[in-house]
Amino acid sequence: MNAGGDGLFVALETSSRSPQIAVRRGATTLCRSLESARAHASDLVPTLARLVEELGGRPTDLAAIVVGLGPGSYTGLRVGAATGIGLARGSGAVLLGVPSLEALALGALQPGEVGQVLLDARSGELYFASYRRAGDSVEVVEAPCVLRAAEVPTRIDRGLKLLAEDDALRAGGLFDAPPPSLERSTRPRADALLELGLARWRAGTLQPATTLEPLYLRGFAASSRRR
Question: Which domain holds residue 115?
Fold first, then answer.
């Protein structure tokens, strides 16, 4: 199986509170965002089915499924991985996993540009990574890690583009004096995830998987609601 033809190519990006799905057939790519207030598990497959139908395809036409591996929402990553695995097993499609922050960097950086990513991980912690855009791919400069809020100012290079939103800037103590090259962008796009996964598959640098290991980075912390 190759990465061309009339097959359907799908990307599931569920690491954020506003998950996205992208589906490509031929030269046409459709991308949809799910409403953040609704559950990933209940919306993901029906939304995918509608996009496949819009493109005149059937579930049996699935050729490859690219799943965002995070880091990000613990529940979202579990749902995305389980959905991708189930779809691949049911259709025979190739299953591919790509770190979500690399898709974010692909969509936000110019060729040759280096940028840093800062995401609010909650509970006084932040996800941090650094990437270089290299053509239709990205290179890891600093692998994703978890920082305490007090560590953030010492890790930010103010000469580089910073991809962050207000919640991360506040949590990291940067809101009042953000870097000059700030871009308020922290949601990986499903279409960028699809581009990155397929480009690496074509180049032979990304091998198909039978299972997926999301980048949780932090342990799951359960919380109880007041009644």
Answer: 104-183
Q: In Å, how far are 97, 104, 158, 168, 202 from 113, measured between CA atoms?
A: 24, 13, 14, 22, 23
> Could you report the per-residue pLDDT of 10-39, keeping only the tens digit for each?
999 999 888 999 999 999 999 999 876 455
pLDDT tens figures, 92-130: 999 999 999 999 999 999 999 999 999 999 999 999 999
In a domain, 175, yes or no: yes
Which residues are within 8 A (CB) of 46 and not within 5 positions of it... i.e. 6 or more apart?
none
Interacting residues of 119 by C-beta distance below 8 A, sequence separation 6+: 71, 72, 101, 126, 127, 128, 164, 168, 186
Cα 207 from Cα 71, distance rounded (Å)? 20
Determine, yes or no, domain membership for 3.
no
For residue 216, being part of any structural domain is answered with no
Specify the amino acid at residue 141.
V
Residues 6+ away with beta carbon under 8 Å from 136:
106, 195, 196, 199
Distance CA 150, CA 57 (A): 50
Q: Nearest-CA neighbor of 149 among 162, 133, 137, 167?
A: 167
Q: DSSP string covering 71-111, please?
A: SS-HHHHHHHHHHHHHHHHHH--EEEEE-HHHHHHHHHSPT
Give the up-direction half-sphere exposure of residue 171: CA atoms within 13 A in the CB hemisphere.
20
